Automatic annotation (TrEMBL):
InterPro entries according to UniProt: 3-oxoacid_CoA-transferase, CoA_trans_fam_I, NagB/RpiA_transferase-like
Function: CoA transferase having broad substrate specificity for short-chain acyl-CoA thioesters with the activity decreasing when the length of the carboxylic acid chain exceeds four carbons.
Keyword vocabulary terms for this entry: Transferase
Species whose genome carries this gene: Martelella lutilitoris
One GO process term, biological-process aspect: ketone body catabolic process
Reaction catalysis annotation: an acyl-CoA + acetate = a carboxylate + acetyl-CoA
Enzyme class: transferase
Protein name from the UniProt record: Acetate CoA-transferase YdiF
Source domain of life: Bacteria
Pfam families according to UniProt: CoA_trans
Amino acid sequence: MKSKVVSAEAAVSRIADNAVVSVSSSSGLGCPDKVLEALGARFEATGHPRRLTTLHPIAAGDMYGIKGIDHIARDGLLDRVIAGSYPSGASSLPMPEIWKMIVENRIAAYNVPSGIMFDMHRDVAAKRPGVLTQVGIDTFVDPELQGCAMNDKAAAAPIVKRVDFAGDTWLHFDNFAPDVTILRATTADEHGNLTYEHEGAYLGGLDQAIAARNNRGLVIAQVKRVTAAGSLRPHDVRVPGHLVDCIVVDPDQYQTTETLYDPAISGEIIHPLADFELAEYGVEKVIARRAAMELSAGQAANLGFGICALVPRILLEEGRAGDVTWAIEQGAVGGMPLTGFAFGCASNADAFMPSPNQFTYFQGGGFDVTFLSFLEVDRKGNVNVSKLGKKPYLTAGCGGFVDITANARKIVFAGLFEAAAGLNLTSEGLFVEKPGKFSKMVEAVEHVTFSGSRARENGQDVLYVTERCVMRIGENGLVATEIMPGIDPERDIIAASGGRVSVAENATSMPLSLLSERKMGLTI
């Protein structure tokens, strides 16, 4: 058999003009960066391939050294990008090239929920007529709002429409058949069988490879190393060799953002619980503590980025790290979800699920509770995490947020009530010493990533946890049902929100134990 091992340059030379290219990645996690770099370099040298459409269920690359999609963010090379998320980072960093192309309307750019992106791959592989789903109705995904379009060029070429089917309203997404899939693994044998022993997740590489193969496409796999044919255990092979055309070797590929390799992320070793840092004392820890009070032992819980990512560390500090099973969209189940650059990975995981399967679990609401952050909340209880017009690259887009919240039984949103307020934490209460720059409780969110009215219609249990109060959606808008000791309800909640949040007559006090610099004595 002819060797499938080729240079990155040889692999990308097979990508034609106008191709639809699917890329498996999650920011720096599993990013086939060497192949994407070679693709950008080929275009610079030859002017080809041109007018590509790229599909990214989760972001490709980050802003901290793994360029990913930015390698191919070039005029003429990219024509259209359909992605669950995009690279994001701090405002102190330069705007990524892909974001410049989006805001300058140089490409058509769409933000499609990650679970729907995986559904699109499965449905096009099976020759079904596109994705039919109720995930995203009444959010920015809905064509009655933005229809996933991130700019005018995308709005002029819709990819989703509302349809009536079986007596109900659904969203229908067009098919995009991949001509090429680019994925990443750890080891390939000479026949192209792929194993993932050093990876922090399987992501959706298998489904994306099948989608390309079933449409007579090309599959390129980037790996760390190659071994002899027949030396891999069949049970360890996650993508079989008959789906793989080209193998590109990069012995220096990073496991995830700013992490060359951590064996606990891939399950090679188990870290003692004492190795994990506890949440630093401060306002965010107070919020995470109150969120953690919504848990019960034995539950399965989903976790998002931001303040809520601290909730597992609260349980760790309280001696309850094993009481809850965490499930994150990249596929890790159990263990200790990581924070910061390594978010999306977990140390000491019990199992790894392929992301498409994890999203099937999420979309159907199989878990007990989800903890998610917010950028802004409006008086109707709508939440925005997906768009900031002034600095768009501060958010990655919706990712799996819309899939997760669509049918979740219980949702706990966590965030600050105001931005950059002067707050004083004491053992007796939390005091607002200086108003914030602006309230995160707004009249109308810039982007509806979560629909408060639809949640009410569906009977979902929704809480909004901040440092000042806990809120719920009432008949006439947001209502604070719990108040932090030290907070003046009239000044610090009603006036600070511009009257968008009211205070319940029977509002209770949040427990002082949330403010303790020692353990809070959490029972779940």
